[in-house]
Amino acid sequence: MSANDIALKVAADAGRAAQELVLGLMSMPWGQVSPSVYETGRLVTLAPWLTGHGERVRWLIDTQRSDGGWGAPEGYGLVPSLSATEALLSVLRRGDDTGVGAETLREAAARGLRLLSRCLSGAGLSLPDMPAIELIVPSLVMLINEHLEENGMSVPLTLPVGMSAAPLEAVRAWVASEAEIPQKLLHALEIAGDAANGAAVAHVTDIGTIGASPAASAAWLGDRGPSEPGHPVRWHLEAIVRRHGGPVPVGLPITVFERGWVLSWLARAGIPFEVPPEMLADLRAAIGPAGTPAGAGLPPDADTTSVALYALALLGVPRRPDSLWAFETPTHFCTWQGEEGSSVSVNAHVLDAFGQYAAVRPAEAARYAPAIGKLRGWLLERQREDGSWDDRWHASPYYATVSCSLALHEFGGPAAVPAVRAAVEWVLDTQSEDGSWGRWTGTAEETAYALQLLLFAGGEERVRDAAARGYAYLLRVADVAEGPPLWHDKDLYRPLAVVRAAVLAAIHLAQSRSLGVRPISQV
């Protein structure tokens, strides 16, 4: 089947595609996530005894960029490049039999080292706001420098300007003391070094994960891995590596996160589909008094909680959003307790949750009106001069902008109208010649976000023309299984089903809105 045939099939029945997508969530309950260079590199170093070791090494070799680095452009490439380079140096030091020649390994590691040396010695390095980056970078630089010292190389890597090893040392001492640590730190337990091995502060979940992270799980299992094949954590890791034939994602499971986002994208767009009753029951049951985590091993967070609540309200089974009060601060809502920084997309999703519940339960609307007003004001203050928003949980401003704009469009009232209009203008001004949108290059995911904003909040001829061009682009790239990872974790990742739902929503909106979008036969 040609790409055009696929496009026509997808466009002809977004409802059927949405139904298949929702049913697929039941068959893969841990979630569907792209493999991670960072996490895969950590398993190469920490768990060479694990199934798929050779496949992981070869995958790292195959995904190295021509400039010697790994990962996305700009500062996003530092963490994956450090992890992959250190992993290859570990393989060389141990002399692992991976099926990859020693010369190939040496050349790839040397290219990685040259890029890292240039990158870290320069003054223009700007690092993104990624979880635990202030701990991960020093831990990897220290490991690489140990390799260099063993090989008699006298020029160690330096830390980025403004970054110190002191926070890492403090966390390692904290873990070693066996005192209770914040649950969110377990997601990056591998940075604790030897103290992670069997750390008493970590608790194995029912499905055998530590912190919903393969790297954290392998670091905690440590030297028991080879000798205890039946250990729950070993079993969990074996199950994960089979997903991609060796490489692993940065976070798994993401059960509640994935279901909340998929269902909300589809329902908000008005796509007809049925949700398995047990999925709705599971989603409702996951939300406790303190909210819900994205998946087992993670702390509750306002983002997952609010999107799950919003999806439930859209689907006709609303649940009071009172668990979100646990995340309220004097000015806004935090992602989790003790968060450093803030997130506009999280606050936009909290606005969605409160606003939609108030809409379907008008008798209770007064209870949430003050919070809705506070959220509106906070989001309006953080809009950039060009009309967009940016965020700490996604590399693309199109994700942040569609999250904020749609929440304000639906629940922000008259005071939010100018801001939404400015966002529409920014989207119109940043469309590429081929009809796509994207931070670095046009992508189906980012085009879907831009298209949704135009179709929900726009209306004049310029909007209709841009929407038609964006729709045509989506049809040309209908096979959306591939695409760059843009979501923030320790490394960038791509939640496949979530992105697929966003694209389906945009396609359905383009077909169903009376905005002059051309028929498929004319595209």
UniProtKB/TrEMBL annotation:
It comes from the Bacteria. InterPro entries: SQ_cyclase_C, Terpene_synthase-like, Terpenoid_cyclase/PrenylTrfase. It holds the Pfam family SQHop_cyclase_C. Keywords: Transferase. Transmembrane segments: none annotated. The keyword Transferase applies. One of its GO terms (biological process) is diterpenoid biosynthetic process. Residues 342-477 form the Squalene cyclase C-terminal domain. GO terms for molecular function: magnesium ion binding; terpene synthase activity; transferase activity. PANTHER family: (E,E)-GERANYLLINALOOL SYNTHASE, ENT-COPALYL DIPHOSPHATE SYNTHASE, CHLOROPLASTIC. This is Prenyltransferase and squalene oxidase repeat-containing protein.
